[in-house]
Design brief:
The structure holds two protein chains of two kinds. Chain A is of the alpha/beta class. Chain A has eleven helices and 14 strands. Helices cover about 40% and strands about 25% of the residues of chain A. Chain B has one domain. The chains are: A alpha/beta, B mainly alpha.
């Protein structure tokens, strides 16, 4: 759905995006994760044909950026960084205007406006001026605007930014629903939790793309998998028994806990438990060590400084 | 050009203008006020006769323009003043829509509503022409309304012969054809300026200069250098129509989406 090769954007000698190579598959939620100024919005603007790349190539929804911009614009929906609504107009008038820009026929426009206002819980407020809306309502209306023409590909730039937890959850649930309809979603965020919960794949970006993978694979790539065995007490004999297992990569002792690095915890944990029990170990609990996406992200971003 | 998208822009802009009562007030009030002033002056002239003007000066004017010969001296004074006042109705469509036009692109950039619009399949020419037409419509309605009031009121403050001058084809061409074309030129320039500067005040200041050529036209007429006639206005209309098209093409070429989105803060 999106393919880029060496995409770059420079502004007056400053590199906003450099050598971006992406491949977003149809129907997936791809999250571009990065700190402020990492080039996420610039990337979206290039892919949405709002600004021209300085270098490189991009193909969006089957069309080439720079050569088939009108066709791309007709195929995509975009939620920009700021909702950018016409505050004096009503919710329905805002949507109707954009539906006309996307070339929807009169009868179809009314039906779509109703459907999306309904889906996002704004139908009852359809005739109210947008200026009277809360931040969350404006964001929902901007999302409805991006979907009116039912695009195959939707760009969402910081969709939950500045929203209260309830509104943010509603928006996240809605994004998940969009994926179930088969749409491809390109999500820009610096909200790690959001990317972790929603995305099939995450691209960590800081001008360049640092890593791209599923959240689970990112965890695996960054950290060795380790199990934590909580015991009543730990003896040297028990540590020796674990170390004697050929597949154990390392063993660390922390008070009455053993942190054991394993290639495949699912297959190897029972043998570790057996060895400890045979060495008179009293096991209280066994769990796999969890790494938050935050740790991974900070590690990746920190590594580029 | 896609007519549906063009009309969508026009109607949305008009809807926004309609919802801004203060803006509507400022569009319609000045032309109406400017209409009562000439009516009062014409009424005053009618009662003052030739005023300070010497009979030999009037005789010289009548000799220079034979069509003035059939008028009484006090009527000649009224007729000359009438021509100056009518130029006002050509000037109105130039300055009335300037605020709307100057705000058109900068305003959208400031409210951040421009980016979602530019992300749709809309063409630059559709956006700019739509905004221009939407600025012209209220300006022309205000001008024609003011002219209507002037036309109605004039019959009570001038003689029937002078009043007949209002039906001169020259003024019909001026008000019905030239004025909207001038308004379109003014707003197209305003939209062009609005898309090139990032401060509304600067756009308005630059836009205000549009009235200068018309003031020069008025002065030229007063000095006897330019003689206004139906033919002058028809030729003027053709020139302005060409200028309208040229400015629209120029504005479309000079509209840089990227600069507006990335450099304006």
């Amino acid at each position: 759905m999106i393919e880029t090769h060496g995409l770059a954007k420079h502004f007056n000698g400053t590199t906003a995006v450099d050598d971006l190579n992406l491949n977003v598959k149809p129907g997936e939620i791809f999250a571009l994760l990065g700190p402020n100024g990492a080039g996420k919005t610039t990337t979206v603007r290039m892919l949405a044909c709002l600004i021209a790349p300085t270098r490189g190539e991009a193909n969006v929804a089957g069309y080439a950026v720079g050569r088939e911009n009108d066709a791309i614009r007709a195929q995509i929906g975009i939620l920009t960084e700021s909702p950018g609504l016409y505050e004096k107009l009503s919710a329905a008038q805002n949507l109707d205007f954009f539906a006309r820009l996307y070339g929807l026929a009169s009868a179809e426009r009314g039906e779509r406006v109703k459907r999306y206002l309904d889906m996002l819980g704004l139908w009852a407020r359809r005739d109210d001026a947008v200026a009277e809306f809360s931040k969350g309502m404006k964001q929902k209306l901007a999302i409805a605007r991006a979907l009116l023409h039912e695009p195959k590909l939707v760009f969402l730039d910081e969709p939950t930014s500045g929203l209260d937890p309830e509104a943010a959850k509603l928006v996240r649930d809605f994004i998940a629903e969009l994926k179930s309809e088969g749409r491809t979603i390109f999500l820009c965020t610096h909200n790690l939790d959001e990317a972790d919960r929603l995305a099939d794949r995450i691209g960590v970006m800081k001008q360049k793309l640092i890593q791209v993978d599923t959240p689970a694979n990112l965890r695996r790539k960054m950290y060795a998998r380790r199990i934590v065995v909580r015991m009543r007490a730990v003896s040297d004999a028990q540590i020796g028994a674990v170390k004697a297992l050929a597949f154990v990569k390392s063993v660390e002792r922390a008070d009455a806990r053993l942190v054991i690095a394993l290639e495949e915890p699912e297959a190897m944990t029972p043998a570790v438990v057996r060895a400890l029990v045979q060495a008179s170990g009293e096991i209280l609990a066994v769990s796999e060590e969890e790494h938050s996406l935050e740790e991974i992200y900070l590690n990746l971003i920190g590594g580029t400084k | 050009m896609n007519r549906s998208r063009l009309m969508a822009v026009v109607q949305r802009e008009l809807l926004e203008i309609r919802k801004n009562r203060l803006l509507l007030f400022t569009i319609f009030l000045p032309p109406l006020l400017l209409t009562f002033l000439p009516l009062a002056l014409l009424a005053g002239m009618g009662s003052m006769g030739t005023g300070n003007m010497r009979p030999e000066d009037i005789a010289r004017l009548q000799a220079a323009s034979p069509e003035l010969a059939r008028y009484a001296p006090s009527e000649v004074i009224q007729l000359l003043a009438l021509q100056q006042f009518l130029l006002l109705y050509l000037m109105m469509p130039l300055f009335i829509p300037m605020t709307v036009a100057a705000f058109s692109i900068i305003g959208e950039k400031e409210s951040r509503s421009l980016e979602p619009v530019l992300a749709t399949p809309i063409r630059t020419v559709e956006l700019l022409l739509g905004k221009s037409i939407a600025a012209v419509v209220p300006a022309m309605l205000a001008t024609w309304l003011a002219y209507g009031v002037f036309f109605f009121g004039a019959q009570f403050v001038m003689t029937a012969r002078v009043y007949a001058g209002l039906l001169n084809p020259m003024w019909i061409v001026a008000i019905v054809i030239l004025a909207p074309l001038c308004a379109l030129l003014s707003v197209s320039l305003g939209v062009l300026i609005s898309s090139r500067v990032n401060d509304t005040r600067v756009a308005q200041q630059i836009g205000g200069m549009i009235v200068i050529p018309l003031i020069l036209l008025g002065m030229g007429q007063l000095a006897g250098i330019i003689l206004l006639s139906a033919l002058t206005f028809v030729i003027g209309s053709l020139i302005i129509a060409l200028l309208d098209a040229a400015v629209l093409v120029l504005a479309t070429r000079m509209f840089q989406r990227e600069m507006i989105l990335t450099r304006w803060k």
